[in-house]
Each structure stands twice: as structure tokens, then as C-alpha cells.
Design a protein that fits this description.
This protein is of the alpha/beta class. The protein has eight helices and seven strands. The two termini are 35 Å apart. 34% of the residues are buried.
């Protein structure tokens, strides 16, 4: 369980998607409050889906107890257990950026999140692969420059957490410290957190790297979902993003993520 707005299992599902696991291959058990209940509820989910074998992943100091509880719950006819290891400090490999990052000092990296708008047929906690690539690039830039990441996303959520909070969860899994992230969150019917000047001002940033998706990705996202980027004042192209910075009096050097 978790103390926040979403369960730890939902956070794990977001991270798994960010690392390349398709949403359709993830089953979330988000109702338990301890390992015993987790084993019981997981057993019900496994039986309902016809799963007969499984691999239990847990921390070294928890693996024995968890394995015993899952076996008692008869979650799987065949159960294997493995100990989860910490990810390497340079994982995931940073996505490529299509322009050379210039030399010089930057006060922050602003990550322009982009993903489809409202679509009431989608899981609100799903992660678009294009956003995951953007965040992989952001984690690489953080490791390179060691400056704050300002997370900016103009589309409001329909779930419990904002799109920038989703971005922060994935970046934390990629090794970016929580204290190194500033979130600009769009909320339903209002966008008080989207003033790029104020956001950059919270970390004293006057010269920033603006990590942007390519214009063709802006265009494809604008055609998806029921709402568009510009509905909450967001840029619809790299040129509009540069104009937004100019009006805020911030020197922004744009870099673009290469999409596979």
C-alpha cells in the first residue's frame, strides 16, 4: 500500500511501462495493505486469469517471508522466487537527442512532457512510449549537468495524479532524486502551475535547456484525445515553445529527443 494518492502497485505499473513493459501485460493488485493480503489477492487474480506458474520478486530481507505467504495462499501451482537487485546508476540508457547539447552552464533542464489528452477509453495511469523516451533523455541530461529538472506538462489528468507526477515517478526510478525535480502541474479546468517563468524562478533559472519532442510528435499528439495541448496554454510546436520562453525573459536552448 502507499500513503499517497495511488497505490505502490500502481506506481510499479507506471515504472514498468516506462521501462518498456506493455500496459496489456500488466495486472495490478492495488487493494492489499500487507504482504499476507497481497498474496491472497494475487492468488485470486492468478486463478481468475488461469495463471499456473509465477516468479515472485522481492527484496533480500523480505523474500523468505513473502515466498512462504504466497505458497500458503496457493497463488501458483509452480512458484519461483528471485531477489530484486538495484538498477545500475546509468540505467536506463539515455535516449538520443537530435541536436548537439551546447557547452556552457545551464541553471535547469525543462522537460516538456507530451502525451495524448483526455481519452475516456484509456487507463489514466498509462505511460505513452514517446513520453518514456523523453524522460530517458531527461535522466541522461540530469546525470550530465546535475541541475534541477523542471517538469512541464500542459494536459490535465482524469486520474488521481497529474501528468507531471507520473513523469516524476518514472524519473525517480531512473535515478533522479526527488529534491532535484520541480513540478508544474495542470489541474482540471485551470492551469495555475504552467507559468514557465514562475516555475523556472523557483530554482533561480535564467538559462535553461528546453528538452522538447520533435514538431511531428507535437502534431500527432494534437490530433489525439478530446483536448489539445493549446487548450491549457501549452505550445503546439517548438517555435511556440521558444516564444513562450522569450516572453518569460528566459534564455532557452532547445534540444530534441529522437523518436524511434
Amino acid at each position: 500500500n502507499a500513503r499517497g494518492l495511488i497505490a505502490e502497485a500502481e506506481m510499479m505499473a507506471l515504472i514498468a511501462q516506462g521501462l518498456g513493459v506493455p500496459l496489456g501485460r500488466i495486472v495490478v493488485e492495488n487493494g492489499s495493505v500487507d504482504t499476507e493480503e497481497n498474496a491472497r489477492d494475487a492468488a485470486m487474480l492468478a486463478r481468475a486469469r488461469g495463471f499456473r506458474s509465477g516468479i515472485l520478486v522481492a527484496q533480500s530481507d523480505h523474500i523468505e517471508r513473502a515466498t512462504n505467504l504466497f505458497r500458503q495462499a496457493e497463488a501458483f501451482a509452480v512458484l519461483h522466487s528471485v531477489v530484486g537487485l538495484r538498477l545500475a546508476p546509468d540505467f536506463p540508457p539515455a535516449a538520443r537527442v537530435s541536436s548537439d547539447v551546447p557547452e556552457g552552464k545551464f541553471d535547469a533542464v525543462v522537460v516538456h512532457g507530451v502525451s495524448p489528452g483526455y481519452d475516456f477509453g484509456r487507463d489514466p495511469l498509462s505511460v505513452d512510449p514517446r513520453l518514456a523516451a523523453l524522460l530517458a533523455a531527461a535522466s541522461g541530461l540530469y546525470r550530465q549537468y546535475q541541475v534541477p529538472l523542471v517538469l512541464w506538462h500542459p494536459i490535465c489528468p482524469r486520474g488521481h495524479i497529474s501528468r507531471t507526477e507520473v513523469m516524476a515517478i518514472l524519473l525517480a526510478a531512473m535515478g533522479v532524486p526527488e529534491g532535484s525535480m520541480v513540478l508544474g502541474s495542470a489541474r482540471r479546468y485551470e492551469a495555475p502551475g504552467l507559468d514557465i517563468g514562475k516555475l523556472c524562478g523557483t530554482v533561480g533559472a535564467r538559462r535553461v535547456l528546453a528538452l522538447l519532442p520533435p514538431d511531428e510528435l507535437f502534431a500527432s499528439v494534437l490530433s489525439e484525445g478530446r483536448f489539445k495541448q493549446r487548450d491549457l496554454g501549452g505550445p503546439a510546436s517548438a517555435r511556440e515553445a521558444e516564444e513562450m520562453y522569450r516572453k518569460a525573459g528566459i534564455e532557452a536552448v532547445p534540444v530534441f529527443v529522437e523518436q524511434e
